Amino acid sequence: MARSNEPLWWSLFSAGGVVSAFLMPITLVITAIAVPAGWISTEGFRELVQHPVTRMYLFVVISLSMFHWAHRFRHSVFQPNPKGMATLGTILCYGSAIVVSVLAAVFVVFRSW
Amino acid sequence: MPNDKHKSKEYIRTMPANWWLLKASYFLFIIRETTCVFVGGYAIFLLVLATRRDDPQWFSNWLHSPLLIALQIIALPFLLYHTITWINLTPKVLVVWRGEDRVSPTLIAVAHHAMWLVGSVVIFWIAYQYR
């Protein structure tokens, strides 16, 4: 049997499922309701986003959530390839998750200017 | 030459394009799978927000854009549906035994829902300190 890389993608999907399930709703309530409604000032929130711990939190949420999307979207939308080869759809899904993770690592975590 | 008389008559199940609207369980399955689009979309929103954190004007415009607020409000029920369906599946993955007895699957799901709610309150409280 050909070796499958499915366990790797499934692990990332699963980790992203947990992180997005637990952290995204409250984060969205803050960015879509609390800040626009003025319960939290935009400048105050900006100070929070500049904090290194928040940036690490956002990196984890962004990166793993993208892998969650990639895996679920790929399995919902693209037909499985009988030979188990990567199709263009698969490459685009996981590829964009990898690109977004790199961007988040560079611009959200490491870049401090 | 093909001879129709000898063609097999196996049943070929038809699959109408609206198959997912024909049964509540199919519909809920498709909704659950669709939540991933909102999870990914919101991740991109956060990436842009966090990347532009040093530009006060840009940061403010991004958070106060009526279009982006509307999209997030549309995304909220999908994110909540993802959370609820995901947590409801945790007992399938997490099978805990206490001695001879299996810890109730309902208890495991309820505990995770409680953790989610408490965690959300804590995160909001931290963010509120920066008001």
Could you explain the architecture of this structure?
The complex is a heterodimer of chains A (113) and B (131). With 113 residues, chain A is an all-alpha fold. Helix content of chain A is 77%, strand content 0%. Chain A contains 4 helices and no strands. In chain A, helix 3 runs antiparallel to helix 4. Chain A starts with 5 loop residues before the first helix and ends with a helix. By secondary structure, chain B is mainly alpha-helical. In chain B, 68% of the residues lie in helices and 3% in strands. The termini of chain B are far apart. The interface between A and B is large, with 49 and 43 residues.
Which keywords apply here?
heterodimer; A: 113 residues; mainly alpha; elongated; B: 131 residues; two-stranded antiparallel sheet; 4 helices; flat
Chain-wise SSE layout:
The complex is a heterodimer of chains A (113) and B (131).
Chain A: H1 6-34, H2 42-50, H3 52-77, H4 88-110
Helix pairs in contact in A: 1-3, 3-4
Chain B: H1 24-51, H2 56-64, H3 66-93, E1 97-98, E2 101-102, H4 105-128
Antiparallel strand pairs in B: 1-2
